[in-house]
Amino acid sequence: MRWVVAALVLFLPVLAQTFEVASGEARYRVREELLQVGLADAVGTTKAVRGEVRLQSGRASGEFAVDLRELKSDQARRDNYLRQNTLETHRFPFATFRPKEVKGLPNPLPQSGKVAIQVVGDLTIKEVTQEVVWEGEAEFRGEEVRVFLRTEFPFEKFRLVQPRVPILLSVENRIRLEVDLLLKRK
Hints:
Layout: H1 2-15, E1 17-34, E2 38-46, E3 49-56, E4 59-67, H2 76-86, E5 94-103, E6 112-125, E7 128-141, E8 144-153, E9 168-171, E10 175-185
Antiparallel strand pairs: 1-2, 1-3, 1-9, 1-10, 3-4, 4-5, 5-6, 6-7, 7-8, 8-10
């Protein structure tokens, strides 16, 4: 009987593992055309990312949250417009993601190396929840995993209104989100 208990203790980490955000950055990218500037990507970033994920046999649970009030780009006017109009951060300060499945991970998880992954889950922005698929890679380094993921969608998927201001000639109807996270085993 002792060998059964010992085997369970040894294999329990393989069955379920929990990782939490040690550090990270979330970004948005939107192609815009500005008067007297031309085409360029508007990029906003924040390091205000927290959360954790529990992995078990390809299934995932947990939650990640990004504080949208902390997003900053190279233009304070853009940041204020997004906070006040597009994202309404005074009412909806966080975007959340609840992972459901991670495709491409070997079982058991490796101690080192890179793996291409897809993460499927529910993203909530301004109380609108939609399933999204993130593409990217996980790099395992002992007790740490660096994860880089990206996804994209049109503004209307989350009922977001494309910015319209006089100096802005056009905004592409495609939001690209990226996350770069350092996760540590709990």
